[in-house]
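Weekly structure sync, notes
Attendees: PL (lead), two postdocs, one rotation student
Agenda item 3: pending single-chain targets
PL asked that the sequence for the first pending target be pasted directly into the notes so everyone works from the same version. It is reproduced below exactly as submitted, 247 residues in total.
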Amino acid sequence: MENKLTAIVTGANAGLGFATAKKFCDNGIITYVNGRNKEKTLQACEELGPNAKPFILDLNNLDEIPDAIVKLAKEAGKIDILVNNAGINMKKEFLEVTNEEFQNILHTNVLALFAVSREVAKVMKENNSGSIINISSMAAQYGIPKVIAYSASKTAIDGMTRAMAVDLAQFGIRVNAVAPGFIKTNMSSKALDNDPERKNKVLSRTPMGRLGEPSDVADAVYYFATSESKFTTGTVLPVDGGNSIGF
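Predicted structure, written out during the meeting:
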């Protein structure tokens, strides 16, 4: 039991977070599945099997994060891996976005990520090792219409990934990011199937000509989570079928 790796994956009861938690659990990593919704999170853990443990917390409640991480670390004994996957998006015309809407997205996608990372890094520092993986986005690589706050938040995550990598290297903690392109999830399929023009645009500028699978992102996260990437820190890896360089 002692030598098993322990991970936290935020926003892990669906989508890319769930795919990542599955990759971890299947590879013998004890994985704390974070979600706001108790029912959905317990259901996800049941599907993921005995290596999955529920970690029910709304990360927007910043003041609750320190105690929750201390408690989790006590129960787990250590935290080896943190995947900052939880995030929200909103499609809206730039001129109509309110200050409050903009702030809400930054609060969840940037502030909560910062607060969780800070508290987990304190635990990782004790063991002089750890890997933090942030989930970025194509929205940080180029301009995508109608997602101003999301774009700002994901670009902030890329900058934070580099700054955190430099700050935390002295404690044996590595920090990297994965930037998914267009991946086949329930959410994206619904959005693209309802908008054939957007779907064609996405596929025509993706050299590999198709959408990615959630497992493609999970595989990249797993690489950063394990010793396979032990000399890699401060990088942002696009997993996008070439979308970010496609013409």
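Discussion points:
- The radius of gyration is 17 Å.
- The beta strands are 6-9, 30-35, 52-56, 81-84, 130-135, 173-180, 236-239.
Action: rotation student to compare against the earlier draft before next sync.
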